[in-house]
Amino acid sequence: MAITRIHLAAATAATFAAIILVGTVIRFTLGGDALVLSFRFAQPLTWVMGLTGVIVAWGLLKHYRWAWWLGMAAAAYELYRVGSVLVENVSFTRPPAFWPLLIAVLMLTFLVLAFPSHVRASCSR
User: Fold this and answer.
1) Which residues have C-beta within 8 Å of that of residue 76, sequence separation ≥ 6?
2) Structure pTM?
């Protein structure tokens, strides 16, 4: 089976879930002079985000339509969360923080891979 856009989108969702569950990107704080991440495994949102990424990746591999919709909604929401923090803490004297930028790039990649109509049409179950 050839690797298609839906498989790459599923890999992106799985990568997001791994980052969330291994190094939780839940709460952003300003520590000293840089934007840093706070790790919180006790928060339910951590588990919801991580499990959502796993469920979306599995659903996309099985070509479920609900997985496509859930992935689009979750990616848009997370892109909004991370983007608002990045815009709010923009500085022209220092580069943006690595982890929030990585999450933003992953979410943009997922949206670009999964958004075309032929990818949505391939999710027909």
Assistant:
1) 107, 111
2) 0.78
